[in-house]
Amino acid sequence: MISQNSKGEEFQSEKFTFLSFNERGLSKSRNRAIENTKSKFALISDEDVKFVNDIEQKVVDAFQKYPDSDILTFKIETPEGTPYKTSYPDESFIHTRSTIYRVSSVEIVVRVDSVRKKGLMFDENFGLGAKYSSGEEVIFLNDAMNSGLKLRYVPETLVFHPLESSGKVLDKKYFRSKGAIVRRLYGFNPSLGLGLLFLAKQFAKKEKIVSLSRAISESSKGFFSIKKD
Q: Is the pTM of this model over 0.85?
């Protein structure tokens, strides 16, 4: 468990480690966990999820079934037992640049050695508490693909999460963040088309509280605020 406070507290037992750091940011918290975990596999958790009873065995079995995979993504169900997303396929597949957009953080399990060998970390400019408040998962997975890691979806449920509205406000900050995400993912390489399609879907959302022209303008500002080689 990672805590972000100024106390610098630490506690360790055979199956539990508590560490605190004087910093803020979701991606920073996840990076500290990756740096300090002693486990072979690591998953990302939130305070509002519950695990299936046999989660450890499910993770081990999945990596044994797909030994070439470095990162696996799984399914979420509601407490009532229904799929959290309607888009979950029934068959396993290898992730592509487009499918990683649909992955939530609590669906991700990583092979720790693979991630560490590649020096793969969450971009601390993205995620709650950072300059850009979203996008950390898709950037992490895209960076993993860029580094040669293999990503696969497994149609097994690992966690339960209540079905609720996102609470996101589609304002200027939201669209500026989306533009920054696209630039961070693709720069000006040929895959930029995927990013432009992603932005088009954001612009089409009826929940936005800014005009279409303002949404495009803010996304452009976010895009050009990122320096990428």
A: yes
